[in-house]
Design brief:
about 140 residues; Cytidine Deaminase, domain 2; 4 helices; binds tetrahydrodeoxyuridine; globular; about 30% helix; alpha+beta
């Protein structure tokens, strides 16, 4: 994936994080998916006073993309501006990401554009034995 495209995707995730609903953790997260037609779908974490009903930014973005008619994505960026160090997606989100994009799909995350981690869905979620069931 071209570096400028990943940087732009990260900037969209960062901008989205300002719209997070995170009054309980005060840890806003933004996610941005690059879709096959070149458009970008963003998502934010949406917390709840029950805590357990919280939806992560990554899943918000994936579910919004599916609701808009997409079934895959080409890359994802995740911005966690309040974090002291780059924060990767939670285990549940890793599995959801793996449902809709292949292992080589780029993932980029970090608290700021000058300290980003670049990896792939396959690195974050290896040994995906159930993957074939959904195909
Ligand atoms: N969170 C995300 O939205 N994505 C991540 O990758 C890590 C955690 C949210 C969940 C909760 O609202 C807050 O961050 C603190 O865990």
């Amino acid at each position: 994936m071209e570096k400028s495209l990943m940087t732009e995707l990260y900037c969209r995730a960062y901008d989205a994080s300002a719209r997070a609903y995170a009054p309980y953790s005060r840890f806003p997260v933004g996610a941005a998916l690059l879709l096959p037609d070149g458009s970008i779908m963003t998502g934010v974490n949406v917390e709840n006073r029950s805590y357990g009903l919280t939806n992560c930014a990554e899943r918000t973005a994936v579910f919004a993309a599916v609701a808009a008619g997409y079934r895959t994505f080409q890359a994802i960026a995740i911005a966690t501006p309040a974090a002291a160090a780059p924060t990767g997606p939670c285990g549940g989100c890793r599995q959801v990401l793996s449902e809709f994009a292949p292992p080589e799909t780029p993932v980029i995350f970090g608290a700021s554009p000058d300290n980003l981690v670049e990896t792939t869905i396959g690195e974050l979620y290896p040994f995906d034995s159930l993957h074939e069931l959904g195909r």
